[in-house]
Amino acid sequence: xxxxxxxxxxxxxxxxxxxxxxxxxxxxxxxxxxxxxxxxxxxxxxxxxxxxxxxxxxxxxxxxxxxxxxxxxxxxxxxxxxxxxxxxxxxxxxxxxxxxxxxxxxxxxxxxxxxxxxxxxxxxxxxxxxxxxxxxxxxxxxxxxxxxxxxxxxxxxxxxxxxxxxxxxxxxxxxxxxxxxxxxxxxxxxxxxxxxxxxxxxxxxxxxxxxxxxxxxxxxxxxxxxxxxxxxxxxxxxxxxxxxxxxxxxxxxxxxxxxxxxxxxxxxxxxxxxxxxxxxxxxxxxxxxxxxxxxxxxxxxxxxxxxxxxxxxxxxxxxxxxxxxxxxxxxxxxxxxxxxxxxxxxxxxxxxxxxxxxxxxxxx
Length: 364
Known about the structure:
With 364 residues, this protein is an all-beta fold. 1% of the residues lie in helices and 48% in strands.
């Protein structure tokens, strides 16, 4: 376009303390009520976004800033805002909608490194007013590797889903790969619903994943005891594992994936504190970065019937864990040997009443 830049340095300078050097990651959409285009820009280390509007998507006017101090309750250690997304979501079970702002900060996430938080609020075409932040529900992912997600545009209204995907890499150029240094997560839907009196973001893999998956094992209505181990004969490197069970008091369910020799990545759900965890300490190559191992955790409650729901996506070098209705998510890179392709499921400290477990091979 011969008229570039569409926002000049002279326009940026009054709204950016670096004179425009930190402005990045534009998100543009059409706002029907005013008939104008809206652009959101992040301002890096200034921990803010700016809103701009245009009649033709060529000539832009600054209209407002949204800063960290405008989000009441946002922790002060969250720094370095990047990759904004902004859209409306319906609140399930109601006739209400709310605006959602997703931001990827460089610092302050639960697992360290880049993370993703989301705010709800109202928008009038020029100004976003955030609801008070609930620190227990603001993070979309509790793993190390879900960075800079953006949502699909032009999803048909008849579909109605908000679908997002993020970059799985929070280590720069460190991952032990040759021709690439990151990958996208599996696409996931993003929804809003009140659970236990709190408005929760819910994420689940898109249904289309089922079109490229084949069932390897399916178990229903089984009492799993501490003396048993399931699925030790299954070998695969790309899996979709779906578990619904009722835990006994004091029990811990343990699912090991990409298992072979001394390697395994372990997902656990501890009944006593409702904690789900991903342990990468034996996941394979963790020498490439000091943050490549460790254990990442979050919590979620069983459903009203007492059942715990877990879904685990395993790929060549990635792992995504979805707990409950999708209110607890942990996404991580892993680098095991190709030969580490086993899985196992067991319980310690008490029985696990298996309602259903399905293990599917993903064939992409």
